[in-house]
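Think of the structure tokens as a kind of shorthand, similar to the way a musician reads notation: each symbol stands for something richer, in this case the local conformation of the backbone. In the example below we present two proteins back to back. Begin with the first one, reading the sequence and then the tokens, and try to describe in your own words what changes along the chain.
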Amino acid sequence: MLLFYFLLQVTRHSDLYTEIRIAGGWVRDKLLDRQRASDRIKVVVDNMNGRKFCEKVNLLLSSRGERVQKITDIRHKSSRCLERARMLLFDMCIDFVELRSEHYTESSNEEVRAAIDSDVKAAINLKFWRETIGHEVYLMMSSAKENQHEIRMICDMQLFWDVFNVDSLPPNPDVLETFCLAYMDDAWRLMQRVQLSTFSREQRRLALYAALFRPLCDRACVGQGAVRLLFQKSLMLKSSDGEKVRSLHWYAPIFSALFPLFLAIADPKPPPADYFCDGGYETVFTLDEISLSLRVKSGMIFHVIGDLWHVLLLLSTLLYRSTDDATAATCSLEDCLDVFHKVEGLIKNMCLENTSKDKPLLNGTDILGMLYIVSGPLVGRMKIKGLQWQLAHPSGTAEDCGNWMGKQFPLFF
């Protein structure tokens, strides 16, 4: 790389006995063999601060008759080790920082270690580093390769709740942290078995977010609202991603509750002759009735979830085995894959995958023209009723839907 050769020329031009190390996101991506490496490069020098080395860079540029570059100092009062200088080289924004070493006696080992940990955690909470960490998490989740070990490293360094900061630490944080990691591991393995090409890059990222934070959305822990704030304040990522993850968390248990009906259609079995409930015979629904009910209930969910229905199916599959986090996060991968494919096949057979793109037969204006009211919440409720009828009657017309509404709710028409 031209940058590295140029940096060596800087040391030779100024007779520097400086050891140069390269760090930052670029190194991580190269080690992970990612096709598109990050443009975040940090140059670490061992015997001078970043600004002085940048000045040596400009000396070389000036001697060649080239334009010198502006040097920007970046300092944070909370920690000296965060001081750095930044300049533009080869159309890349490069940070230069001095390598620091700490010397301490054996008796003070624990105190110094605690101070270092304290500095790291304090630095993480700075806005500058929040944005940087959020960007790195974004890259981890967007990768098409395994990324669990990167999150596991955060756990090993006992920084999980500092990186993924919530307003108040949940009960049993160590156990919950394990569940979070287990969910993400299972989601990634299931995506691989299903085929990664089934999911777009955005869908993979949202699936891993949703799986990692799934145990946090329990009200007994931090609640769904806290997960949304985690995106906005802790990771400083797009609020739209937080809203999408929140929707996935909300609808996953609702959708997974429909799985027994999906599987009843996929593997139909006649009820036993003595099948009864509460002392009386239970009503046995036909497969057509079950299918119609599923079409309406699933269609209403997909109407909100939209193109993320594959992600919802993935997360719901992991939840299906049990509502207990410890069990759900360790269920059999083969069982999950079987359930995923069966439900996916029925969704496609019912033509539900594009539900969110279907135009409503009756919009708000149409319904308002049919009602004896000016406006109000009743219009919204009627729109929902109309959408449910449309899902139950995929070949129906707007006139048919209007006639049905008139018969069902004669007082309003």
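Once you have a description of the first chain, move to the second and do the same.
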Amino acid sequence: MRSIMRESEKRRRLRVLLIEDDTLVGMGLRGQLERLGHEVIGQAATHAQADALYRTGQPDLALVDIRLGGHDGIEVARSLLAQRPCAMIIVSAFSDEDLVRRAGEAGVYGYLIKPASLESLRAQIEVVLKRFAENEALRAEKEKLAQTLEVRKLTERAKGILMKRANLSEEDAHRRLQQESQKRRISLADLARKIIESEELISGG
């Protein structure tokens, strides 16, 4: 047990939200999380409480009971994840492949069978954090690629306008865009948008 405590000191201290309507189960999970060196920012017993604590507490990790006061815990998790990304673990007394599949489809990467040992909880947290980080990195890369393509599209369109309006070659039009971007201290994308908007205003469409 001491080895787990020593290892936990080396790991990041997480802000954890418990979404569990059973007080005793919640107390048990809180104790285990604190023994692992994490901070429990609150326990929600209803969907409304979960929503409020999730928005105000900004947790790093959420443990969500599969059943929450008549609500489907997976759907509760899905609605919270629609607000912002967060590592999540579904907590259930049953091992069910369909539930695991649904949880994954909702964006939840962990599934913990209760009652869980301290070691099981620790291992599940590590797996979930790793998968969450990988997914966030992939999402960020996709967003970056989409932004790059959008900038390229805007730049090409603005360059075409300059070539037509100022009778410039493609190379000169591109150089003009770069120079104006630096001169005005705005991004190439913002400059391109201004040129496109001006052209649409002049041409009436």
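Compare your description with these statements about the second chain. The longest helix spans residues 118-165.
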